[in-house]
Amino acid sequence: MLQPQAVVRNALTTGRDSVTVFLTDVGHGLLDVSHSMLAMVGLAVVAGALFMGSQDDLRDTLEARAWGWLEARHLARSGGEDLAAEAENEPPAAGPVNTSSTADPADLTRAQANVARWIVRRYHVAPEPVARLVQESWTVGQRTGIEPTLILSVMAIESSFNPFAQSPVGAQGLMQVMTKIHSDKYDPYGGHLAAFDPVSNLRVGVLVLKECIAKGGNLSSGLRFYVGAGASDDDGGYAGKVIAEQELLKRVASGQNVPPTVVPIIANVAPIPLVTPVPVVAPAAAASESTAHAAAPEQDASARPERERVALAR
């Protein structure tokens, strides 16, 4: 018969062995699970790397985000947050002006939208760039006193809304401005290559057009100067074409139904002769002066400087 002490000792030994076996089994199980989890993580990493390698856009996005995060951390540690704030408040360096070449047609007023839709159908151009040009024509026209429909009609006749048009004599862009002559006007927009930026060319072209109208004294003479003809010279019907196109645009802006294929009625805008001032002479000298006065217009026409033949815009 076993002693009570022996019974207790056997029970303790059995319990200890059971706990040891249990803990050993649990440890082995956790080790197996860990191995499996590590294998799964490894497989996931490999699969993710393969997927990222096949997705260029996603990889570039993640790289940009990671670089931005690292740069932000670097600035924070080096005290560069204040420098970054100062840089944001500094004025931009001299360079090309950021001029968007498109606009949402839904942002236009009713008159502007009417004109934009009509131009799109008539000249087979995209609505978003046309919306921007119409919007800018209204803005610049209000600032300079030039009617926006006149600005758009000059574009239509000059380039048919092709921003990359170039004439044999070097007139470039939407409004066919002579870039070599007016290169200084493009300086605020980054230089002469801005001639092919639609908005920049529009702004410079309006400045040139305003100068031509001021020089000619009226619209028809100003258009003749713009195209390269003198105020009293034949412009090949250019002024009449521009004015006829403007009349169509005015009708469209007012809401009238004008077919985009309509042929404008071009009025014959006669050249305006140059007026030669006649001095007042005494009656006794009238006979001797009559020959000089009669020959004055012919002499003036023959001696007119060649620069009168070269308009501001051409």
Core attributes:
single chain, 314 residues, mainly alpha, Lysozyme, 2 domains, two-stranded antiparallel sheet, 10 helices, 1% strand, disordered C terminus
Walk me through the structure:
The protein is mostly helical. The protein folds into 2 domains: 4-89; 105-274, Lysozyme (Orthogonal Bundle), CATH 1.10.530. The chain is 61% helix and 1% strand. It has 10 helices and 2 strands; from the N terminus they run ααααααββαααα. The chain has helices at 4-54, 56-77, 81-89, 110-123, 127-144, 148-159, 198-216, 219-227, 238-253, 283-303; strands at residues 171-172, 177-178. A two-stranded antiparallel ribbon has the order 1-2. Helix 4 packs across helix 5, helix 4 crosses helix 9 and helix 8 (219-227) packs across helix 9 (238-253). It is rod-shaped, with a radius of gyration of 40 Å. It starts with a helix and ends in an 11-residue tail after the last helix. Mean pLDDT is 77; it is low at 80-84, 90-98 and 271-312.
